[in-house]
Design brief:
By secondary structure, the chain is α/β, with parallel strands linked by helices. It is built from 21 helices and 26 strands. The radius of gyration is 28 Å and the shape is elongated.
Length: 628
């Protein structure tokens, strides 16, 4: 299958878009008319630039409001098409995409539409060109691909074919079975887009919220199965209208575009056992068995205060790296690595971001296969020098330039604590009952959110939860979780367009995207809270009004609510499942920790998020005032 991308998917001027498309490895491009009209050069200049970049123009689009016009307007529509044909020939493109008519002046009737398409096809053929007809979901008379196909079939001209667009078909929940009966040589182009499931008019939904395959909720695999039944092996092009993409990096979106298609074809192969011609088989999506360690890059001067915080949380100094200034702190199945090296990756990361998470290591079945899949998905591998006899753990770049390591037993990488670290004699820790990493919350630029959603779900065997809007005193925060079926890995992706939210303030303080908070699981949060208090850890203060409301809306005993109040523990319930959570105060205005107890509960306490965010905003405001 020949893949392509439309220039409308990307931000920037036409030359910037084309350079990004070529750099991402695409060989074919759809030229959106507005991109051409706004370009400060001639059509010949564009054609030369496309050729120099090794690209081929497959489509010029869109041609609007054509079929079904009244007689007095029909001749003018055909003349308009001739002008587009002039541009196409100068551009070196042979296919014009014609959208179904949305004009209130248009007249209905499949036969009328077919006659118009036949006339247009005849004109195109005389110039060695073709036209592809597409049903817009909001078309005035033709809004269904089945009607568009019938118009093309009745037009009965070899230069007239069908364009199938997944958004226009799947947004309307149109039955897909009719696709299977369409002759493959009558399909001139397939445009593919995903989208979240929203309740809104088709036009607004399409123009603002389309996204790349795998980033939304449309049943693209069902569509691809139906298309595959025709034997179609022609052009498949990404056509995405998205406000986040328009504000983001053209190069990043173009790379995501290729990644999304590689992942789509791989998922199709998983389901059907058949992949489009030319699509390579990838190692299976990586199953994650847990978090092996979380590594912090810490300046030498900040180590004492950071390690004091770890002690307060009940961690024990368990080991020191055999050749580097790197310490291991442990509690339960949680390993925190404190890297205070004065050179190398972590040092550079600390210079840029301050004290922050620079790496996460995940337990997998086969680290080599995980790295192989990552590289095939265009993820960036990373290597750094290791000492004699030390383990080289494969990794790729993650959010904000951080690293994601793959640790397995198959290659002995799970022996890193005995190979790379020497045990240290340290006093027994006043453990707080923290047993494992429950989830990791990452904050990022709003424009990055879809990129990292695709990164995680294409590389790992993770599912995405519906996106939620979280109310912060400074604005709205978008939050979406990706997680494994057994909960061994949960990552919350957070982003905000407001500069005043806690998420955005973190980006400013940390000079980029990264881990804003880590949640640790406990089997008894009250016992953990008591131990933390005894260790001198101050938890985030929750206002009394919250507990008054909790008493009013739940059947919790007053003495239990009082204990929650005393230890600043938040509470949520879904049916018979319960979730209890408490937060530390923010460390250096950057990151914080959460303690959670799950009692059959699968969510993340979304109902409590506004309370927590308001409490954090109050503390942040007080800290800011104290500096003046």
């Amino acid at each position: 299958m020949q893949t392509a991308i439309a220039t409308v998917c990307l931000s920037g001027a036409l030359d910037e878009k084309l350079e990004a498309i070529a750099a991402a490895g695409f060989k074919r491009v759809e030229i959106f008319e507005n991109d051409l009209l706004s370009f400060a050069g001639t059509v010949a200049d564009v054609r030369a630039m496309i050729a120099d970049l090794g690209l081929e123009t497959i489509t010029f689009q869109p041609f609007r409001d054509f079929e079904g016009m009244p007689d007095e307007r029909r001749a003018r529509a055909l003349e308009r098409a001739e002008r587009k044909f002039d541009v196409m020939q100068e551009l070196g493109c042979d296919l014009l995409l014609v959208c179904s008519n949305v004009s209130p002046e248009s007249l209905g009737g499949i036969d009328r539409a077919a006659a118009d398409l036949n006339a247009l096809g005849a004109r195109a053929a005389r110039r060695g060109l073709r036209i592809g007809f597409e049903a817009l979901a909001w078309g005035r008379h033709i809004a269904d691909y089945r009607d568009a196909w019938e118009a093309v079939r009745r037009a009965d001209h070899p230069a007239v074919g069908l364009v199938l667009d997944t958004f226009h078909i799947l947004a309307r929940k149109t039955d897909l079975n009719a696709i299977r009966a369409i002759p493959r040589d009558r399909i001139f182009l397939v445009q593919i887009a995903d989208a979240p499931l929203l309740e809104m008019d088709y036009l607004s939904w399409s123009r603002h919220f389309r996204n790349l395959p795998g980033q939304g909720d449309l049943p693209l695999l069902d569509f691809m199965e139906a298309l595959g039944a025709t034997g179609y092996e022609g052009l498949l092009s990404l056509e995405i209208f998205n406000d986040q993409f328009r504000g983001g990096s053209a190069r990043s979106v173009a790379i995501d575009g290729r990644r999304s298609l590689i992942n789509l074809f791989d998922r199709l192969g998983e389901r059907t056992g058949r992949r489009p011609r030319g699509a390579a088989a990838l190692p299976p999506r990586t199953a994650v068995r847990g978090t092996e360690f979380i590594e912090f890059a810490v300046d030498e001067a900040a180590v004492p205060s950071f390690e004091a915080m770890l002690k307060g949380l009940g961690f024990r100094h368990a080991g020191r790296h055999v050749s580097k200034s790197v310490a291991r702190w442990n509690q339960g199945a949680i390993n925190i690595v404190v890297n205070s090296e004065k050179e190398g990756f972590a040092h550079a990361f600390n210079i840029t971001h301050g004290t922050s998470v620079c790496a996460i290591a995940l337990r997998v079945d086969d680290a080599g296969a995980a790295l192989d899949r990552a590289e095939r998905l265009l993820d960036q591998p990373f290597r750094q020098a290791v000492g004699p006899g030390e383990l080289e753990i494969p990794c790729v770049r993650g959010l904000g330039g951080s690293l994601i390591y793959f640790v397995d037993a198959k290659h002995g990488l799970d022996r890193l604590w005995e190979v790379d670290f020497a045990q240290v004699d340290s006093p027994p820790a006043a453990e707080a009952g923290l047993a494992a990493v429950d989830h990791i919350a990452q904050s990022m630029q709003y424009e990055e959110m879809l990129t990292w959603l695709l990164f995680y779900t294409s590389l790992f065997d993770l599912a995405k939860t519906p996106q939620q809007d979280v109310i912060d005193p400074g604005g709205l925060v978008k939050s979406q979780v990706v997680q494994s079926a057994d909960g061994s890995l949960r990552i919350a992706l957070n982003a905000s367009q407001s500069s005043r939210t806690l998420s955005s303030r973190f980006l400013a303080e940390a000079f980029g995207s990264g881990v804003q908070h880590i949640a640790f699981a406990t089997g008894d949060i009250l016992a953990s809270a008591r131990r933390l208090a005894a260790n001198g850890v101050k938890l985030l203060p929750i206002p009394p009004n919250y507990y008054d409301d909790l008493e009013a809306k739940t059947d919790l005993a007053p003495e239990r609510i009082e204990e929650l109040r005393r230890h600043n523990i938040l509470y949520d319930r879904e049916g018979g499942a319960e979730y209890l959570q408490a937060y530390t105060r923010t460390f250096e205005d950057r990151f914080f920790f959460e303690i959670v107890e799950r009692r059959g509960y699968q969510g993340f306490g979304a109902a409590n998020a506004p309370i927590r965010l308001a409490a954090q905003a109050r503390l942040a405001g007080g800290a800011a005032l104290a500096r003046f």
